[in-house]
Amino acid sequence: MSAQPARAPAASRAVAGSIAAAEWAQIEAAAPLVAALAHRYLRQLGTFLAPASVDAAENALRQFARWLITDAGLDSIGAVHRDDIEDYKVWLAAQPRAGGATITAETHRQRMRTVRAFFERIIEWDWPDAPARNPVIAGDIPKKPEPLPRFLDDQDAARLMAAARASSDPRDRLVVELLARTGMRAGELAGLED
Questions:
Q1: Bridge partners, residue 96, by sequence
Q2: Residues 72-93: what's their mean pLDDT?
Q3: Residue predicted with more confidence, 69 or 166
Q4: What is the pTM of this model?
Q5: Phi/psi zone of residue 129: left (φ > 0), alpha (ψ -120 to 50 degrees), beta?
């Protein structure tokens, strides 16, 4: 069995590709500079990113370009300002996905990271129509929630204490008792010196 992820059937890729092509044609008709800059950028990405990463960037930039033209009323990347990005963030967070719910937090993060990287690179590469500074700041990218530490439930804690008491090594009992009674973390205990 291959470790590679399964690809979508050719028919679905063709339909998705034709939808993307039609949307790019609309973008190009309304804002040729936006389309040209995005396509040039995507060609550059293709020189150092995997095809799936370029596809994800293409999807995010196509969505951003559509919003730029239809919602912000802009026809140039260089005309994007900070307040436009604030409006885009609100619009993006409200976008529906299959099933009616809004996009996931991870999709939101990915799209904002892509748009920020797009601006960073075209500014760094000194491309025409790049804004003077990146309108997307680090705080625009939603943070990933950090998982809460996992704790033992009462049953698991009782089993751990019973196993420690039954151990023939007094050090095992000492370590478990010390952790349980002091609230010390295992990493803190491991860092103690003699």
A1: 102
A2: 96
A3: 69
A4: 0.69
A5: left
Backbone angles phi, psi at 123, to 5 degrees: -70, -45
Residue 1 pLDDT more than 50? no
Phi and psi based region of residue 136 (left: phi greater than 0; alpha: psi -120 to 50; beta: remaining): beta
The residues, any chain, with a CB within 8 Å of residue 169's CB and separated by 6 or more, are: none
Higher pLDDT residue, 33 or 180?
33
